[in-house]
Fold this protein.
Amino acid sequence: MISVWEVVATVVLFAWVIFVAEVLTRRLYAFLIGRSVGHNVAVYYNRKIIHILTGGFVAFLVPFIFKTPIFPFAMAMLLAVFLYVPHRLGKLLYWFQTKENAYEVSFCVMWGSVITLGWIVSGGGNFWFGVLPVIFMSIGDAITGIVRNILYKRRTKSWWGNLAMASFSIPTGAFLGVAGMIAGATASFIEHFESNPIDDNITVPLSSFLVLVLSKIFAPWLLSF
């Protein structure tokens, strides 16, 4: 049964995401541009900050707030539409969106889908089965992006970034046991590769989620819930 608490929590979390995307990062963009940081660099920092403060933070809270994935999924899909519309209308949210891709839309779709699938596949309604791959995508990928941005001042792939991601994702994956650590390592490796329109916001959560699913089927002793 859906509780009033879940409804209120969804509204608050949705408002938080909108605040980060519409207010906080817009001000940060203005600050960075004022410090002579290039447009593309500022945009890339903002995208990763949104990854952490919205995708990562909200995903972490999901298991403590919700009993089913109904509201998290609905919120993610609504945000995907919210982010797709500027691309469709040609009126980008310039401080974090780019003409080259709409990866932030796939981020939202995968966030909601993987968390929902994880809850279902876990068998017992365990959110962490889907939340962990989403955290790899949200925080782990953000770490690798920030490291690359510092080193190269542009969007590119670098094994240094993937190493930084692994230093976060593998220990975090230990929450679900050895399988979680393998999933974290897999996500950190897979992040290095992408082929537009299949970006790492799709491959990172899917690959790590697949590791957890296969572990549940063939090697459940590698998992801890």
